[in-house]
């Protein structure tokens, strides 16, 4: 089991550089609230209670994308959760940032500008290389210690994730510890009863490795979304390919056909595939069709009612359930039924449960599902997948350094 120092091990009244992940949806140029703000506010509040001076590093989007915006709005959202002012400076490691850091007082919070606007943050490189970037060389001397709390990006070897821990005393924040502990449970814990994994979403490259890597721990897999359709196609059904207006299936089929066939042949007895699918009919209403003998002429947007009920029954009899990816296009409430029925059943079942994988956690937000009914609702995507499959997370590994 991984061990690292946490914020409990930091002496009070320090000047801390804290890496969080409040990467959020952006709609019409406006940054939207998300549970990430709430989660990181818990870590920050604890640090403020110990009279630390806290400077925050975070990112938003990637260069070239519409979501690549300033963190000014993030400061306001975070301040609402903290119930205190969060100062913002439109600079990351230049003169304005250094001046703001110099003025930082104990018990106060400063948010630096989007770290991905700073040269050297991207692309990925070994920690020793990222430690030599201007970002790290400039900011590290200004602080007593570094706190890594951005579990969602712990799989990325970026300067703000791995560079600072390489040259500074480094500690794990609450989000980092709690997410890692919950998401690694499928690898670290032993369950006496049935372990079920619900796999959906749009990326086969994320889900297929999960099946092959956790087969010794997970007893059964319930498949949906694009992933479910691709497995149905591998099983001989006339679904799982693109129709006019879509580009989700054919390239993934070409890229992963051999793997899909191999997994289906090897783990077929453990895989539960949809028996019916939902689509939008000519009147704009939800309609359903049995998978058997269907010919795909339109997009399927959710698993059908029969499949949802069957998956819910399997979940209700499980000791542990891990969810990665939605079973349908849950953003449209007409096609959220499958995902919601499974999540609601998990919530009503006394089992160990982790819900995660990027957008999946948003279902809990959008439909007011009680987060407390799950063992953990993960805010991570790529890091969650890596933890499920037991692969190392560089952002975790670098916190374990003994120097």
Structural write-up:
It is elongated and about 70 Å long. The protein has 16 helices and 17 strands. It has two domains: 7-180 and 394-400, Phosphoglycerate kinase, N-terminal domain (Rossmann fold, 3-Layer(aba) Sandwich); 184-369, 3-Layer(aba) Sandwich (Rossmann fold). Helix 13 links the parallel strand 15 (320-324) and strand 16 (352-356). It is an alpha/beta fold and 403 residues long. It has helices at 35-49, 72-82, 95-102, 127-130, 134-139, 159-167, 174-183, 185-188, 204-213, 225-234, 250-267, 305-316, 337-348, 360-366, 382-388, 394-397, and strands at residues 15-19, 26-27, 30-31, 53-57, 87-89, 109-112, 145-148, 170-172, 195-199, 220-223, 271-272, 276-280, 286-290, 302-303, 320-324, 352-356, 376-377. The strands form four sheets. A six-stranded parallel β-sheet has the order 5-6-4-1-7-8, with helices on both faces. It has a six-stranded parallel β-sheet with strand order 11-10-9-15-16-17, with helices on both faces.
Helix content estimate: 25-40%
Q: In percent, how much strand structure appears in the residues? A: 15-25%
- Mean pLDDT comes to 94
Radius of gyration: 22 Å
Q: Based on DSSP secondary structure assignment, what is the total number of beta strands? A: 17
CATH topology (level 3) name of the largest domain: Rossmann fold
Question: What is the CATH class designation of the largest domain?
Answer: Alpha Beta
Oligomeric status of the shown chains? Answer: single chain
Largest sheet: 6 strands, parallel
Architecture of the largest domain, CATH level 2?
3-Layer(aba) Sandwich
């Amino acid at each position: 089991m991984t061990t690292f120092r946490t914020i409990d091990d930091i002496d009070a009244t320090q000047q801390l550089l804290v890496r969080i992940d409040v990467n959020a949806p952006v709609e019409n140029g406006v940054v939207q609230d998300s549970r990430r703000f709430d989660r990181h506010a818990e870590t920050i509040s604890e640090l403020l209670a110990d009279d630390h001076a806290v400077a925050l590093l975070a990112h938003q989007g990637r260069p070239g994308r519409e979501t690549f915006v300033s963190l000014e709005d993030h400061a306001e959202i975070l301040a609402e959760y903290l119930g205190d002012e969060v100062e913002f400076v439109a600079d990351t490691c230049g003169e304005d940032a250094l001046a703001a850091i110099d003025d930082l007082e104990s018990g106060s919070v400063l948010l630096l500008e989007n770290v991905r606007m700073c040269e050297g943050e991207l692309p990925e490189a070994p920690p020793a290389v990222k430690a030599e970037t201007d970002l790290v060389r400039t900011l590290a001397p200004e602080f007593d210690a570094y706190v890594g709390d951005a579990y969602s990006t712990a799989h990325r070897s970026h300067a703000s994730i791995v560079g600072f821990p390489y040259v500074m005393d480094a500690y794990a924040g609450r989000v980092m510890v709690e997410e890692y502990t919950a998401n690694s449970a499928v690898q670290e814990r032993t369950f006496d009863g049935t372990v079920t994994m619900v796999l959906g979403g749009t990326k086969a490259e994320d889900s297929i490795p999960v099946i092959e890597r956790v087969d010794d721990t997970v007893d059964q897999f319930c498949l949906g979304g694009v992933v479910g359709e691709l497995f149905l196609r591998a099983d001989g059904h006339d679904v799982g390919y693109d129709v006019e207006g879509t580009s989700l299936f054919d390239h993934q089929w070409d890229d992963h056909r051999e793997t899909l066939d191999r997994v289906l042949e090897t783990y077929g007895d453990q895989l539960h595939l949809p028996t019916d699918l939902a689509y939008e009919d000519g009147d704009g209403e939800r309609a359903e069709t049995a998978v058997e003998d269907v010919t795909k002429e339109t997009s399927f947007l959710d698993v059908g009612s029969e499949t949802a009920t069957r998956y819910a029954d399997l979940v209700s009899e499980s000791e542990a359930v891990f969810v990665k990816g939605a079973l349908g296009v849950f953003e449209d409430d007409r096609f959220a039924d499958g995902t919601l029925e499974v999540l609601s059943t998990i919530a009503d079942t006394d089992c160990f449960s982790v819900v995660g994988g990027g957008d999946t956690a948003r279902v809990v937000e959008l439909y007011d599902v009680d987060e407390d009914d799950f063992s953990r609702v993960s805010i991570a995507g790529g890091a969650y997948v890596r933890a499920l499959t037991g692969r190392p997370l560089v952002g975790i590994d670098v916190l374990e350094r003994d120097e």
